[in-house]
Design goal:
Layout lengths: L1 E16 L4 E9 L3 E10 L3 E5 L2 E6 L3 E10 L4 H8 L2 E7 L3 E7 L9 E11 L2 E14 L18 E8 L9 E6 L2 H11 L6 E2 L1 E6 L5 E7 L7 E7 L15 E3 L5 E2 L5 E7 L5 E8 L6
Parallel strand pairs: 13-20
Antiparallel strand pairs: 1-2, 1-9, 3-6, 4-5, 6-11, 7-8, 9-10, 10-11, 10-12, 14-15, 15-18, 16-17, 16-19, 19-20
Length: 290
């Protein structure tokens, strides 16, 4: 078996739930192309115990940290923002023209991410695809460099470097690998693991409930399969990322009136059995007796 190719970097936001001890990834994104990657791993040294003039026990070295160097054809704007938590501002120029500009400033705080990549291997003349994902990575700000074009094009790529750490979940994994017969299967696996998807839209309406201090909610479209609803009340609520962990929100059966207060908003989320977001909507609350 030998490696003969590399493709499709996938990134997802890391989220650790201390109450459940689980890690999940949400709001994931794909960068179109990979050129190369290197994962340099640092481990603790073996610590042998000597007795009778020989080694009788040995504390074997373990993973301590690592450096992930990822070279891509380019880092598109939305990926740069995702990896570094850069913000956008709308700038006006020329004759009332506007553009969204990415701003690198003191507000940046590189998020913790899961990072996936696909290696193409060949075994006995048959292609095999190895999906690799590093569980917990934080990227540093990359260097900017470019060279002017001459008589021929000299292809210039972008490289970003991150620190690999152990996950907070049980046994502290830092890398996972899975083999597939097709690239599409490997991509689908990484997308699922790293929370790449589009949050569905729920239309939520609120009307005065039957009892004083309650509201009646109507949600469309209805939840699918074994999914359930969860909700939270508040002000200035925001929609969660796709696959965000919403298990801490209140369970709702889709029918019962909800205790609420005038002036609040309600966020309703359709979630999987594990509490991960698939669709959501927000409405202003109308309360009986308000």
């Amino acid at each position: 078996m030998a490696i003969k190719g590399l493709s499709i970097p996938v990134f997802g936001r890391y989220n650790y739930n201390a109450e459940t001890g689980k890690v999940n990834y949400a709001g994931g994104i794909i960068n179109p192309h990979a050129i190369s990657y290197t994962a340099e791993i640092e481990s603790t040294e073996n610590n042998p115990l000597y007795g009778d003039n020989m080694v009788i026990e040995n504390d074997v070295g373990r993973f301590s940290t690592g450096t992930l160097t990822l070279e891509t054809d380019d880092l598109i704007g939305e990926v740069t923002m995702f990896l570094l938590d850069a913000k956008t501002v709308q700038r006006q120029y020329g004759d009332e023209q506007t553009v969204d500009a990415i701003v690198f400033d003191d507000r940046m705080h590189s998020p913790v991410l899961g990072v996936g990549i696909i290696e193409l291997h060949q075994l006995n003349d048959v292609d095999q695809y190895k999906a690799i994902w590093f569980k917990k990575v934080t990227f540093s700000i990359p260097q900017d460099t470019a060279t002017t074009r001459g008589e021929t094009v000299e292809w210039q790529t972008r490289t970003i470097e991150g620190t690999i750490a152990r996950s907070d979940e049980q046994h502290h994994p830092w890398k996972e690998e899975a083999w597939f017969e097709t690239e599409s299967e490997a991509v689908e696996y990484l997308k699922t693991m790293l929370g790449v998807g589009t949050l569905g839209t729920l239309t939520v309406t609120s009307a005065a409930g039957t009892a004083e201090g309650t509201t009646t909610l109507t949600v469309t479209p209805e939840k699918t399969g074994a999914n359930t609803y969860r909700y939270t009340l508040g002000t200035a609520l925001e929609l969660p990322d796709y696959n965000a962990d919403c298990s801490g929100m209140t369970v709702w059966n889709g029918e019962a009136d909800i205790q609420a207060q005038d002036g609040q908003q309600v966020l309703v989320v359709e979630v999987t059995a594990d509490g991960y977001a698939r669709a959501a909507g927000i409405a202003d609350v109308e309360v009986n007796g308000a």
